[in-house]
Structures
1.
Amino acid sequence: MKHYPVMLGEVIAALSPKAGETYIDGTFGNGGYSEAFLKAAKCHVIGLDRDPNVQCRATELAAAYDGRFTLIDTPFSKMDQLDSIEQVDAVILDIGVSSMQLDESERGFSFMRSGPLDMRMSQSGPSAEDAVNEMSRSDLEQIFRVYGEEKRARRAAELIVRARSESRIVTTGGLAELLEKGLGRTGKIHPATRVFQALRIFINDELRELYLGLCAAEAILKPGGRLIVVTFHSLEDRLVKRFIRRRSEAAKSGSRYQPELVQEGPSPSFNENRRSVVKPSEKELAENPRSRSAKLRCAIRSDRPAFIRDDALLPSVPFLEDYGWAA
Ligand SMILES: C[S@@+](CC[C@H](N)C(=O)[O-])C[C@H]1O[C@@H](n2cnc3c(N)ncnc32)[C@H](O)[C@@H]1O
């Protein structure tokens, strides 16, 4: 399937690329955003991706835009820990899986064509097969409920536990089929959709990566630097929205009539543009239906210090470490 960089025009408008500036494209993927930034101005782009398969495309860009593009194979949550990166003018995150990852059945992200039950973006660590065959029923239920927003989470977990007691579940097709048979079709979407989403988020630790990525961006953005995030489902969007709101409203409390109630909070580390949530245009929706749930949010870094990290924005769910699995 053709690769469309989602909401590219809107991302460029939010970024407003300028010569001499440095940007982090934290989710390089097929390089659609990076290439558009490099074309739009004589800027420098540092691409990050935890999928080693993007290397080939990165080599092409490095050759075509000599000296202005580099790729670092690392999760974006660590962008503030790299010696080679100092302060930057923008951080752009396009959260989720790429069309290349989705379309390749060997990667195990999709059940449209059966493949190994893998789903690991970094191609290392535990896989979805490990999660499905080794996690307790109640933990599976919880991740399906929280990460998949699946109403029939308990039933889905029970079906899996029953099936795996007969034989290990090893393919996307096998898992999708047992869920389809056991849950039945109720709406337009395939009954396995939400369970697959939940497993993918769990295995790639996506929500914590997103939260740590936002904190890391806060640490390395220059005053005036832009944070631009494109998300694809409500769990991610809610996290980005709350993060930006918390950090832009920090000191704005109290009342003009009861000034004694004013609470001293940290100074806002971001300025939020209240109308900053943007959705894809009708034209884009017609050309690329996969963009239908995309949302873009942006905020501008202030000159105030970064907040102290607290994990209150993360849902309470089992994490990989609970099983002794490193991310
Ligand atoms: C939706 S695609 C990005 C597409 C890209 N904007 C383009 O125009 O081609 C998301 C990419 O981000 C990568 N990714 C997801 N989570 C990541 C993380 N925590 N750290 C680094 N890369 C990540 C995935 O491997 C995937 O290649």
2.
Amino acid sequence: MALLIRPLALADLPAIEEIQRQNPTAAQWPPADYLGYQTLVAERDGEPAGFLAVLSIPPDEVEILNLAVATRFHRQGVGSALLDAAGGRVQFLDVRISNHAALSFYRRHGFQKCGHRRKYYSRPVEDAIMMRREMPR
Ligand SMILES: CC(C)(COP(=O)(O)OP(=O)(O)OC[C@H]1O[C@@H](n2cnc3c(N)ncnc32)[C@H](O)[C@@H]1OP(=O)(O)O)[C@@H](O)C(=O)NCCC(=O)NCCS
């Protein structure tokens, strides 16, 4: 099955909302907010299968703001393809301490813990693990 990574388009917003809804551990933003960030969509056979939003911090850092894959496409390489397309030599992110799937996913991609933010999240209140990876030059 072909996987295409492309920038977010206005027409994707209902699909983004649905992917968020399927993934309560992802950040839940009003879909239009993604238009204000660098957001990539993974499209599988013409259907949005996942998305990734980043904040670029020149010259070479990228903060991953949100990443989610439609549940029926989990563990088929969609999240990995989005992460690989995120850019930046140094990538960092926050993840809920109870989000074992995401922690495992990020560790698999070479992220390491670089900090701990107590009660960082609300609804529900929870600590964040800060993670970072650096690409080889
Ligand atoms: C985390 C997430 C983006 C991963 O996307 P994905 O497309 O399923 O991941 P990939 O198929 O590219 O990578 C799979 C690898 O990641 C790890 N992984 C992914 N899901 C996992 C799980 N539920 N449990 C353990 N490891 C997991 C494994 O190493 C896995 O490799 P394997 O399938 O060979 O064992 C996806 O699970 C998701 O949308 N989660 C909900 C939203 C979320 O929590 N986002 C993170 C916000 S910080």
3.
Amino acid sequence: MGIAEAVAELRPVLGERLSTSLSDLALHGQNESWYPPMPPDAVAYPESTEEVAAIVRICAAQGCPLIGWGAGTSLEGHALARYGGISVDFSRMNRMLAINPEDMDCTVQPGITREDLNTELRATGLFFPVDPGANATLGGMASTRASGTTAVRYGTMRDNVIGLEVVLADGRVIHTGTRARKSAAGYDLTALFVGAEGTLGLITALTLRLYGQPEAIAAGICAFEDVASAVDTVIQTIQMGVPMARIELVDADTVRAFNGHAGAEMPEKPHLLVEFHGTEAGVAEQAEMFGALAAENGASGYRSATKPEERSRLWKMRHNAYYAILSLRPGTKGLTTDLCVPISRLAEAIEETRADIAASPLMGPIVGHVGDGNFHCALLVEPGNEAELKIAKELSHRMAERALRLGGTVTGEHGIGMGKTAYMEAEHGAGWDVMGAVKRALDPGNLMNPGKLLRGN
Ligand SMILES: Cc1cc2nc3c(=O)[nH]c(=O)nc-3n(C[C@H](O)[C@H](O)[C@H](O)COP(=O)(O)OP(=O)(O)OC[C@H]3O[C@@H](n4cnc5c(N)ncnc54)[C@H](O)[C@@H]3O)c2cc1C
């Protein structure tokens, strides 16, 4: 591979926006999870689609790997430079390109973060709902097909990206989708690139679906005696068709972490955190229906949060759950798992997982976007402790097998990256080979984020 040659050729094109400083390489070689550092050989900071295409053409001619970089918050080592190469950091491509309030859509560059996007949209009365908690970029979120607390109401990135601009591995620029809300024109290329983890091309613009800011929002939190009662409440709420905007489970260990980290003063029991969107009357009705179901399942201490500052305190605490959990055992890293099952199998999946973790020496608090049948546990592992890492991987392996046995998926939202390729065959069968054929057709030199998602990649 001509990595050094590619770096030399890129320098006059990008000038100071091609960095080989050790701190930049280290920053783009680390991750939020347990994977060891894998730095790139250089970091490119393009400012336009044309520059991205130029970078790709040079790297293609030299056989140099290219790894897209958004905010680096992905959890399966997705953005690490496994075989070296150029990390393409999109932080300078972070502009809003167009807002179309009448059509409720907008077009953005990939490096805009979810929080900045919603700040830009605030005055329009519209918002973009997909919320993975971390302040990720829209390019990274599309590439991992992210979702989060609001997916139960608004769907995932799959449902909310309506078009893309992509630079392919040979430097061609394509546009997928239109601004129309539906189309029957051929293969759905937008869906192909959403969730491709940067293995098929680099996204340089996204057209997104927007929603009207709800007239009324109410949030709330209540405690349950056990996880099963909380999960039963979730299942009944979803089955009754209450249009929850968020319904999140945190177990007693996570609550203990909140109390220590955020001074939450909550009873150390499993809790559900909920949010309702709609008209004043609609929100009141939804809250009442949820409250009745929760009470039937023995919930106590329901507290509502209607003021914006109370709600933002509640969701900030939830979004920081990972860091609160890490503080239960300072110095550890989390091996974060992510299974998603049909809602009818959720209680079983959580109970089996809890029993498995309880029988192990590791700590693994559970949190979940349970309205989607999705939950995570962060298995706390001391860096460098191979024995603990082995136990964590075995627990994670059994969770993946459990998800498949119960008719679910090994990842509801975090993606495959380097960590979950071992399950692709079991989940997709020959479909995984089809993904490989698509990859070979679009990127025969295997330059786009090699070592991720695919067989032998
Ligand atoms: C505390 C915490 C909580 C989280 N909670 C959730 C959650 O609730 N739901 C959820 O879905 N995820 C969650 N995540 C994971 C993470 O936030 C998501 O995976 C997010 O979508 C990653 O976006 P990013 O901008 O950080 O992308 P990165 O990590 O930088 O990149 C992710 C992948 O996308 C590729 N990529 C980035 N930009 C481009 C581009 N322009 N073109 C092509 N490929 C590109 C990268 O090569 C990589 O493969 C959480 C992470 C943390 C740390």
4.
Amino acid sequence: MEILPGIHHVRFPLAPGVWGAFYVLTGRRPAVIDTGKPDTPSQFLFPYLRKLGLPLKAIVLIVTTHRHLDHAGGNASVRKIVPIPIAAHRVEAPFLEDPWREVEEVRFRYPDDHPYRGLDRAQIMTKLLTSVPVDIQLEDGDEVELGDRRWQIVHSPGHCSGIICLFDSRTGTLLASDSFQAGGTADGIAIYDDLQAYMQSLDRIQALGPQKLIVAHPFRPFYKPLFQGEEVAEFLAACRHFPSEYDRELIEILREQHRPRSLGWITDVMRVLHSCYGPRFLTVVTLRTHLDRLTAIGILRQESFGGHLAWMHT
Ligand SMILES: [Zn+2]
Ligand SMILES: [Zn+2]
């Protein structure tokens, strides 16, 4: 649907009760922001462009907001048909060009809890993006003309290290993708692998003063794609509120324990508390950055317990 003039927000099903979305910008320089999962172009993007009467070869650029499979997953299938250039942030480009890097990073950071345990290389490959070259590496502050608007690239790390927003300062419109998550989707909690960066990105966006903000998933408690006027402040306040709730809950859970608890154990307790039914690893990612921060400020202590990392209240 055309959610704002020249900005089409196209949803596709991701999980029970959860949609993903990509954006199509129409006008003088038509563009696609994200391509969804590997099957999203054939099922949703191409049919949508046909409905608009916009040939695929008219698309001047694909901007990939970040490396996740529900945003960059369709790049390879589009490129198989038309060699549209792909742009992504400099930090994100190596992960798009060599998806195995993500596997290595994840195995290193979450040794006991990563989702590739027990899988061989071939099995892991089926779960990854197909490698796609990034033709244009974006930097924070770059400007790109897409649709009929001039967009500023805003690097907004936190959800992952190279995620970007696109900001049209003339109308105060921010395409936020997954950068800010309020309480996360119905099947999980907010997802970010770097809490400090996430909070700094929130500060940064708040200072830009967006008047309209468009997200890529239905985040609780709002469950809607577009925030306008005062709703923007409400959404950004919720994005600040939930991390402080998770901190509070983690402290409470660990205070009652008399021995160190592993990330896996803590994850299971939090998933029950928040009725999470989505991928377990996504919860692991958020909780790990909270545990690291609570440890850094001396509220928790990190220990080795049975050869695994564990945390306890100090
Ligand atoms: Zn994401
Ligand atoms: Zn996403």
